[in-house]
Amino acid sequence: ASSSSAEAKATATTTFLPDGTDGPLRTMYGAVWSTSSSNAAPGTSTADSAYGSGALPLHTDMTYLRDPPGVQIFAMGRPSARGGVGVFGDGLAASESLRRDHPDAFDVLCRTVRRYRCVDDDGGWHLEAEGPVIRAADRGGAPFPPRHRHHHHHHHRWGPVGMIRHNDLDRLPDLPPADVRSIVDEREREMRIAEFYSDLDRAHELWDTLLGSDDIRLRMDLRPGDMVAVANQRCFHGRESFTADADSPRSVMGCYVSQDELNSRFRRAGYRVF
């Protein structure tokens, strides 16, 4: 027991940088979190669907932060008696597939700003952020051109994809862009608003279809001690529903690392960061 305690203490105090400035990103869930609420640190939030037993669709985490974490690390403590298989997906592959096969939908998800929110009254948190589902380099173009002008703009407008922000469980209702809502002519305004929702619904449906494809998905049945590191601004994660009991209360521990720290490590290793 004393050996295990010493090992845990050493692990907790060891850092990669000599001044100890690196390490887990502290969020509303603490520095290191657990999906078992009985193991959550005092004062940290459990206001998240991960603390339930239902299936979680593919998503990226903390979409309600202006800059979501760059890396999420999962460590399986105790799997459930039945179910709970982890599901992961490549958001970059999904976005490039959408760009190739449905450029109109890709354009919509690049230029439409969607809003996300997390409220925890018990913990005292109210977080909101916004951004497109697909953040790609913008080479210029009208922010929301009329439908008949779409094809003249989007084929060469968008460059490399830099980030994915997607979580339907935290997403607020979509609003048309301000330039559409402010159109003076009532008939044109209503037509453009209807176009906005029609185009967005179609793009979202195509996106969801891609996320359900085995071409971009990987199922992993994690066992005790298994660990997975997920690039949160590129990759999705989710899980299948599970049944837990007193003998096997599913428990996963984890932490986040900021995208800024990840980029710093890349640069130090000689990589070019876009």
Output the strand order for the largest sheet.
Answer: 1-14-3-11
Task: Give the termini separation.
Answer: 47 Å
Rounded radius of gyration (Å):
21 Å
Task: Name the beta content range.
Answer: 25-35%
Mean pLDDT comes to 84
Helical content stands at 25-40%
Stretches with pLDDT under 50, minimum 5 residues? 1-15
Overall SS class: alpha+beta
How many DSSP helices?
6
Main β-sheet, in a few words? 4 strands, antiparallel
Count of beta strands? 14
Q: What would you call the shape?
A: globular
* Elements, N to C (H/E): HEEEEEHHEEEEHHEEEEEH
Describe the structure.
- The chain is of the alpha+beta class.
- The protein is built from 6 helices and 14 strands.
- Strand 6 and strand 7 (125-131) form a beta hairpin.
- Helix 3 crosses helix 5 (186-211).
- The radius of gyration is 21 Å and the shape is globular.
